[in-house]
Amino acid sequence: MSTAPAAQKTLIQFDDEIVRKFMLASIIWGAVGMLVGVLVATQLAWFQLNFNLPYLTFGRLRPLHTNAVIFAFVGNMMFAGIYYSMQRLLKVRLASDLLSKIHFWGWQLIILGAAITLPLGLTRGKEYAELIWPLNIAVALIWVVFAINFFWTIAKRNEPTLYVAIWFYISTVITVAVLYIVNHLSVPTSLTHSYGLFGGVQDALVQWWYGHNAVAFFLTTPILGIMYYFLPKAADRPVYSYRLSIIHFWSLVFIYIWAGPHHLLHTSLPSWLQSLGMIFSLMLWAPSWGGMLNGLLTLRGAWHKLRTDPVLKFFAAGVTFYGMATFEGPLMSIKAVNALSHYSDWTIGHVHGGTLGWNGLMAAGMFYWLAPRLWKRPLHSVGLANMHFWLSLVGILLYVAAMWVSGITQGLMLSATKDHGSVLAYPNFIEAVTATLPLMHIRALGGGMYLVGWFMLMWNIGKTIVGAEKQDGTVEVFIEEKAPAKGGLAEGLISAPVIYTLLIIVFVLAWGALHGIWAGLAFVGVVASVLFGFLHQQDSKSGWGHWYETLLANSLPFTLLTTVAVLIGGIVQIIPTIVINKAASIEGTRQIPYTPLELAGRDIYVREGCYNCHSQQIRTLVGDVLRYGTYSRIGESIYDHPYQWGSKRTGPDLAREGTKYNNLWHYKHMRDPRELSPGSTMPNYPWLYTQRTDVASLESKLGVQRLLGVPMPPMDKEQIKLAVAKQSEEIAADLKTAGANAEPDREIIALISYLQKLGKSEPVGTGTKPAEAPKTAALP
Amino acid sequence: MFHRIFVEEWQRWLNAIGILLFLAVFIATVIRAMRMPRSQVRHLENLPLQDDSNEPPR
After folding, report:
1. Is residue A1 part of a domain?
2. Which residue of A572, A579, A624 is the best one to mutate when testing the B interface, meaning the one whose CB has the most B CBs within 10 A?
3. Nearest to A85 by CA among B54, B5, B18, B1
4. What pLDDT is recorded for position A371?
């Protein structure tokens, strides 16, 4: 005879103070990030708004904008949503108030650090991964604090099952940690500077494995979790199909991680990886649209509420934008479409459809829903919230439509040829810039409208909460004195379904990797595993189903399986590429390492954020080759830490820049681009003519480059000084001959030395016919 | 259009393996989701809708 465990009724008070803090932080940082966004958008229409000041140039402010909206705006919004919903779904208060506070204040300090360092030009030179190494460590530590608090709360829960929103949160916590750490592995050269561990094609692959999945696991999965909690709550009806949400989750987390290489189509990335990225991107259509439809259909029977309820308006439009963005992303990953869309404003339009539409509208809906509940007072003005919605919606549509038209115009003009494809139809890059200038105005207008809408939200929520009484939610739960065993790691992982699945995977891998008799044996192993697994399952019947039910109630094995699902894609992509890059020759062409002065110039190039507007990668496309020269080979950027392939061409590609112009051209162009390229929107860089090149740090920088495998000759401090002086004086003398007086120790000289090096490489034997090497030319 | 010829034979398998793995995960997920007991689905889908003490004043 067994007796039921005694249960005790307990009132649990949630920690909603931390939710309020993260929510207000998101609202404030959102305004900052969007304000900077509107400024950089207007800079693309009116270059004068760069103000000839280093701290306000596009190249430095654009990373501030992206980091602010991703990590500060969406990051804080995500933490608010996670902390609010998980306490209620798990019927437990957050595990540690102290950890919550460390998480909040630590995150805000990191954001403050980013807001100071990025305008100063302190950057790692990789998109969405610009923060310097001390801040990287701080991010990793604070994320660990968040993870401990998160999993500790799950462990203490009073609700045995895990709702699907918690699954999405788990995938975020795990995957972001892995992505962030791997992509930020660096060797410091000083307190504020480092070189990444990966270089060239490796760096490009790791960067977009990170970059794409930052979108996936920072901007998408947590917001999907928020959708699965807040949308049913606001509509007052359960999610349309819980079963579909399960399929949505597993398909999404498994597929997303493989799709990163679609950012590198037609580049030097090996072809198989490009195909992999494209195929998995196309596969993303299904789960993404499954999730979107699940969200929208949750509103079945409640559509009439949209007329009056601004929260539901924001949620419905946000989920629709999720559908639009996730339709457009795979479309742009088709190689033929990508040839047109990549490096153009179409990508910018796509990104903003996702961020302004999906993230921004979901955030606004959640904040309008939360404010009255967290401050115990009705929303100040429902009418103002409705006006915010319509203003935002029109703003997004203007922005996105302008970017589509601009992007397609750029793509068509820059790839157009005549005379049977032998000559460019628009040989001057500026033609595409001036043709799209009116669209930059519309973009700034659309972004400005969205920003005004956000100010309305600030006013509305500010009026709601000022002087209002804060309210923390409570829940009554029955806590059993002796809680039933939830099953452990062993039960979750050491079970027949997991073992058979692992066996099948191992045998399939062996079958692909081995040859001859061993491949045959591996194939037999696959068949045997499937057969025995099927027979075992038939024999045990309910046993296997029980394993899955156990998993739903066990966070630890569930988390481990999620980790495996997201790691497989990364491992399959990255490890073979690391193996390749160790080869002595890469496509018959190898980059010539930089001299100390050229390295100093490259660091200036990275500091000024030139990669935000200029690529260094000539794709295997006719338009690219006709415009810039023979397509880029893997070996040509093999020693670049960080790689600088870029993702957008507001200006032309620079991969072969070193063979095009003389020193005087660059000297004049950096001072006033319009003197040589009328119609250019590039900022002036007057400070490069007064600031001295940082030679003192080169010893440490060269040492780290050598440590990373770059074959630079060992040089001591004096040798570096002599080499820098010699090359600087040569360039200064050449400029003087041409009629320009420049001091050899100024930054412009170092930058010119770097620009003149771009495209210089040497042919190397491969055992097969060497690929055509790009032309090399001596310094003018 | 140019075609990059740099490829190693064994890497062709990685695409196929990736898709096979996904299909395995997808099929298993669909089967389990469809066979989930109705009572459990009802319990899970109603978790967000349970009483909330934070309801705002009207």
Report:
1. no
2. A572
3. B54
4. 97
**Which residue in this structure is represented by tokens 């009207």?**
B58
| Contact with chain A for residue B9, Cβ under 8 A | no
Whether A490 shows a pLDDT value over 80: the answer reads: no
Query: What percentage of chain A has pLDDT greater than the value 70?
Result: 92
To 10 degrees, the CA torsion angle through A539, A544, A545, A549? 150
Pair A209, A336 in one domain: yes
Instruction: List chain B residues with CB under 8 Å of A565.
Output: 25
| Average confidence (pLDDT) over A663-684 | 97
- As a whole number, the mean pLDDT across chain A is 91
Q: Which residue has the higher pLDDT, A562 or A637?
A: A637
pTM: 0.90
> What letter would DSSP give residue A198?
-
Per-residue confidence (pLDDT) for residue B11, from 0 to 100:
64
For residue A555, the enclosing domain spans: 490-578
| Gap between the Cα atoms of A682 and A57, Å rounded | 9
Question: How many C-beta atoms surround the C-beta of residue A100 within 10 A?
Answer: 24
Q: Which of residues 590-649 of A touch B (CB under 8 A)?
A: 620-622, 625, 631, 634
- As for the ipTM of the complex, it is 0.85
**Least CB-CB distance to B45: which of A239, A474, A549?**
A239
Q: What CATH code is carried by the domain that includes residue A722?
A: 1.10.760.10
Q: Are residues A464 and A514 in the same domain?
A: no
| Number of folded domains that form chain A | 3
Determine the pLDDT at residue A553: 67
Residues A290 and A148 in one domain: yes
| 3-state helix/strand/coil string of A280-311 | HHHHCHHHHHHHHHHHHHCCCCCHHHHHCCHH
Question: In this predicted structure, what is the pLDDT of residue A573?
Answer: 76
A545 vs B55: CB contact, 8 Å cut-off?
no
Helices (H) and strands (E) in chain A, counts: 30, 8
Could you write out the DSSP letters of every residue in A77-124?
A: HHHHHHHHHHHHHHTS--S-HHHHHHHHHHHHHHHHHHHHHTTTT---
Smallest Cβ–Cβ distance between A620 and the set B3, B8, B54 belongs to B3
Q: With bands split at pLDDT 50, 70 and 90, how would you rate the model's confidence at A570?
A: confident
| pLDDT above 50 (res B27) | yes
Inside any domain, residue A477: no
